[in-house]
Amino acid sequence: MTAVGDILGGKYKLLRLLGEGGMGQVFEAVNQNTDRRVAIKTLHTQFAGDAAVVQRFLREARAATKILHPNVVDILDLDLDAATGAPYIVQEFLAGESLEAYVEGKADQRLPVEETLRILVPVMEALVAAHTIGIVHRDLKPANLFLTNDRAGAPTPKVIDFGIAKLMEAQTDKLHQTATGTLVGTPSYMSPEQAAGASDIDAGTDIWSLGVVFYELLSSALPYEAPNYNLLVAKLLYEEPSPLLLRDPSLPIDVAAVVERALQKNRSARFPSMQSMLDATVACAAWTPAPLFRLSAPPVQPSSLSAPPSPPTVDRPAVTTMTSSPSLVSGSVQPAPRPRRAVPFALLALAVVLGLAGFVALHRPPSSTAANAVHRAPVPTLLSTPPTPPEAPAVVAPVADPVIVAVAPVTPAPPVAPVVTPTARVHHHHRHHPGHDFDRGYPE
Q: Using one digit for the tens of pLDDT, what is the confidence trace for 340-368?
């Protein structure tokens, strides 16, 4: 008989008894090699000599280690004790309490809808992971749902005790998972097919059992209640459960509909999978996951160049990539102002020379020489040209391009630029600004 103070496997010292069930005991222990606290589950002496029971007991650990999910208890080790021959399973030590104890501590022994969903949704996710690899728990109840805290301190439900789980995949050994006609599970949470002793137990039985847990948390009652085991099984097989809304009409209709569908006697009328039950549950309006249960990263902004807004008086450096779109979001980097282009001094000087030459040519006294007669090139109709004076100071020879003309100088004076037809704008510019400083370019 295993007792407190024993050392299993030469390293696990049993510190205290945590619980005891029909098949075994659970102890708090310490690994003397690592000083890690663990929980150790052992078989009662009367079962330790039964090879079939031992194999099923050890299969609990092997099955559970295949379920990699944060809401399933971790199995750390399993072995047979060399001194007694008793099998044992080493699990992570969970600090907290079972869902059964948690609900019993409530004044009305029921939970609010939102809290019920926050506990059972992670449980459904864990069962989806188990069913995906062909493992059915077959004994879901509040005592096998443990409430603990993860390393970050967030409340986390854990599914424990896969001791009577069934591997749905074909087994290579000759051991039967459960003998036909043998009842396995807790009567109040058994599915009708379990109560009938069916041998083809599948994931539908976990859907039923979780529906019973759902029902109990919301109403503090069970869908089937009877004074003895035989009458309870008869009700499971031949009666319909009392509707949840009759227990509490204030419950949300969509949540009650999830529970009602999970508790259909006919397996084909229940949810087709635990995933579909999960989907229907999170679609309920009451499902509002708390931050401690679900943490999401803030959305990533499309541009990594965005920066916090700066005060208007602080200049921002220019960036390589810019956009001219006016719809820049607040806080984005603004392009640096484009520097004003300076007018080249040579062009400005040329314009001044041409303007002065034209002014002098227009005000020179008329000459009597016939060679000074003006031969004007045709002007396009789009230009408005003032009347030609009777005599002009220069002789202009027509060229191929009617717009560009060549000027032949008549005196050794400075080269005369092509005759620029004066307009009111040019004439006005030079007449009213005699003191303009052309060396500075255009005034700022």
A: 444 455 566 666 667 766 665 665 555 44
Element (H, E) at 77: strand 75-80
Q: Do both 272 and 175 map to the same domain?
A: yes
The structure tokens listed for 412 are 């050794």
pLDDT digits (tens, 9 = 90+) for 44-77: 877 877 888 888 788 777 877 889 899 999 999 9
User: Using 50, 70 and 90 to split pLDDT, how confident is the model at 82?
Assistant: confident
Active site residue 206: no
304 CB contacts (<8 Å, ≥6 apart)?
none
Question: Residue with structure tokens 């609900």?
Answer: 103
**CB atoms closer than 10 angstroms to residue 389:** 10
Query: What pLDDT, on the 0 to 100 scale, is given for residue 185?
Result: 55
| Last residue of one domain, picked from the residues 62, 92, 122 | 92
Q: Does residue 244 share a domain with residue 220? A: yes
3 state SS of 247: helix
Tokens at residue 439, please? 């060396």
Among residues 398, 344, 355, the alpha carbon closest in space to that of 376 is found at 398
Number of structural domains (the chain) is 3
Q: Which of 6, 139, 161, 206 is catalytic?
A: 139
Task: Please indicate, yes or no, whether residues 17 and 156 belong to a single structural domain of this protein.
Answer: no
pLDDT band at 198 (very low <50, low <70, confident <90, very high): confident
Q: pLDDT tens digit string along 231-275? A: 999 999 999 988 999 999 999 999 999 999 999 999 999 999 999
Same domain, 48 and 171: no
Cα 45 → chain centroid: 51
Instruction: Please report whether residue 385 resides in a domain.
Output: no
Range of the domain at 46: 7-92
pLDDT digits (tens, 9 = 90+) for 400-417: 444 444 444 445 555 555
Q: Among 64, 92, 120, identify where a domain stops.
A: 92
Pair type for strands 24-31 and 36-43: antiparallel
Q: Are residue 210 and residue 244 in the same domain, yes or no? A: yes
Claim to verify: residue 109 and residue 48 sit in the same structural domain: no
52: nearest Cα among 224, 175, 178:
175
